[in-house]
Amino acid sequence: MQVGVSTASLFMRKNNEEALPLLSDLGVECAEVFLTSFSEYGYPFADTLKSVKGDLNVYSVHALNTEFEPQLFSKHPRVKADAYGWAEKVLESAAALGAKYYTFHGTSRVKRASRSGKHDDFPSMIAGFAELSDFCESRGVSLCLENVEWSTYNRLGVFRILADEIPKLRGVLDIKQARISEQPWQSYLEEMGARLSHVHISDVDERGRMCLPGQGLFPFEELIKRLKGVGFDGAILVEVYNKDYKEYAELKKSVDFVKEILNKYGC
């Protein structure tokens, strides 16, 4: 297993072209690049990031999904085509940076009725995800669906239904989103199982406030043991909000905290 940091943790504090060399200088070994706007998708920005990332291994990319991801499932041909144009650029960035995984949210469950999933059209969802998964695979990148309270995978069971029909679909476990969804992270991990690509980790203190791993109460030893149990060998990525820490050095300290647990369990 690898331990790294998502540049989402530096959102509004450092732009990506500043965040990557910062993480490299801190001694962080791997990262997820959170591409934050249309101007950051594809070339020439991808070349800029490649030139400054140093020895940092970019494991995955993540887009600001509401900008185009929901439209990938549009029934309007022109809307869908435009959205796929932006997805192509995100995959260009992944290729330039050597990332093999695309962290994906999908549709947005904006309306209250959509949160329950009562009206989910799974045949249509399966067709849309299968098409997109093939599109990503043809460009050397795996599509990875993340559990997110307000998006496609907002409750247990969704991933299993999609993954049963889409062999290449992978999963991303987000600890904070499981907390927000009020569903056990252990159950999400069990559902994704061997299809799990990477994990977004955070911690929570005694007052329920999010903080960096190692500063709160989250049972990281249990997480590592369960990851080992499903044969996971991907990246564990620190992903918090920019207000959840003060000094950048705390990010590296958090990474080292998780690494110590990995060493303890021979991971």
List keywords for this structure.
two-stranded antiparallel ribbon; eight-stranded parallel beta barrel; 10 helices; alpha/beta; 267 residues
Protein architecture, described:
- By secondary structure, the chain is of the alpha/beta class.
- The protein has helices at residues 16-26, 45-52, 77-97, 112-116, 122-137, 158-165, 175-181, 185-192, 220-229, 249-264, and strands at residues 2-6, 30-35, 57-63, 101-104, 142-146, 170-174, 196-201, 203-204, 210-211, 235-238.
- The chain has an eight-stranded parallel barrel, surrounded by six helices. The protein has a two-stranded antiparallel ribbon with strand order 8-9.
- The chain is globular and about 50 Å long.
